[in-house]
Amino acid sequence: MNSTLPIPSQPLRLALIGAGNRAQTIYQPLWESLKPWCIPAAVCDPVAENGQKLAEALGVPYYADIRKLVKDRPMEAALVVTPVPSHHSISVFLSSKGIPNHTETTWASMVCQAKEMIAVAKQNKVIVRVAENFLRMPIDRFAQTVRDSGYLGRIGRIVSYADHTGYHNDSRWIAFAQGHPEWVQSIDHDMAHPAFYSMPQRRHEKETLKARFFHFTNDFFVMDVGSGHVKGHLGRHPRPGYTEFQGERGTLVHRAPGVGWGNEQTELRFVSDAKLAPAQEAANNLWGGGHADVVKPVVHDSTGEVWTGMHADTPTGRIEYVSPLISYARMGKVTNRDWYGVAVMDHVVDFALAVKGLRESEFTAEDALMSEMMEIGAHESNLQEGRRIKLPIEGDLESDALIRKAQREQFGCDPLDVEGMLSVSFPRP
Fold first, then answer.
1. What is the distance between the alpha carbons of residues 69 and 63, in angstroms, rounded to a whole number?
2. Nearest to residue 119, comparing CAs of 150, 148, 96, 136?
3. 0.85 exceeded by pTM
4. Which of 157, 210, 223, 349 is most buried by its number of CB atoms within 10 A?
C-alpha cells in the first residue's frame, strides 16, 4: 500500500505559531524535506528567546504578537505548535481571519471548544485540521494495509495494552475502522506513588489505569487499556506495549519486548485451511484446529536513518506498505526514531494538499472532533461509574464544566474567551 503524492505548483507558505521544544526538536529538522509542499514564512511566539532563535534558524521574520502576524499576513496558513489550552483561541482567531490552521494534538480541551473550532472555520470557509501523526506510524500504516489486503479476513477487533491510551489512540482507531464509534465505556483506577519528574514541567504523584471499550457502527470493537505512565515509569510495560489486530483468520501482533521504542516485534499469525473445520472433517481429525500455523515476521524497512515501510512475505504473496515520502524524507532520525519524522511529515503534507485543493484530507476536522468526544466520553463514563456513553455526544458535559472551571482558575479568564486566552503566555522549558 502506497500512493503518489501530488506536488503543488507553489509550496504552501506556513506561519509556525509556537517555538518551544516540539517546534525546535521535531519540526525544525523537517522543513528541508517538506519544501515541495510547504515552506516556513514566519515564526510567532511571545517568548522572544524561543521565537527569535527559531526564526533566525529558518530565515523568516519573528513575531511576538499573533495579531501583528495576522495583520502583516506573510503566510497562507498556520501550523500551531502550542500547549493544548491555547489551541481553541488560536484556531478560532485564525479561522475568523480566513487563515487555514493545523493544530497539534490534543486538538482542544473541551468538546464545546472543538465544535466551535469547526463552526468558525466553516463560517469563514477555511480548512482546520489536527496534527495527528499516530495513525501514520509504521504499525498503523502496515495494519491498514493488512486490513485492505484481506489476508486475515475481516479484522473486527483491536486489543491494546500499555500503548498511548487517550486522544492519539482514539484517532488511530477511527482511522483503522474508517468510521466513528457509537458508544464508549470506561473505568479508571488511581494509585498513589512516590513523586518523581519525567520532565521539568511534569511531576507525577499518582498513576491512573484506564480501561476503555469502544464499539463502532460497523461492529468493530476496541479494548484499549493503559496506565498514565505509558513510557515505562515504575517498571511498567513500555510503549508501544502490546497490541493485537484480531481478524477472522489470524492476528497481527505488535509488541515491545520490554525495552521500548526501536526494539518492537511484529508478526502475522495466520490459520491455514488445514486447521479449519472442512479440512479437519475431510481428514477425520478434529484435533488441533484453529491454531495459527503460518507465522511470518513483519520487517521494518529503513535506510538506517529514515523509515521507508514495512512488509511481510506470506504464502499468498508479499503484504507491503511503502511510504510515499520515501523520495523526500532526508531528515535522519527524529527523537532517535527513524519513523517519527516521516509520520509528522505525513500529516503536514496532508494539510498542505488539502489547503491547496489537491487532495481530500485523510483525517478530517469531524474525525478530530470525534477523537475529542471519545476522550471526553471516556471521562464522562468514568465519572458515571462506567455507564455506557453514546457517541457523538450531545448537550452539556460535566467533564467540560470541570475543565472550564479549572482553566478559569489557572489562567484568570474564561477558556472560551478567545481574546482573553490570546493574551495568555504558555512558556515551557
1. 6
2. 96
3. yes
4. 349
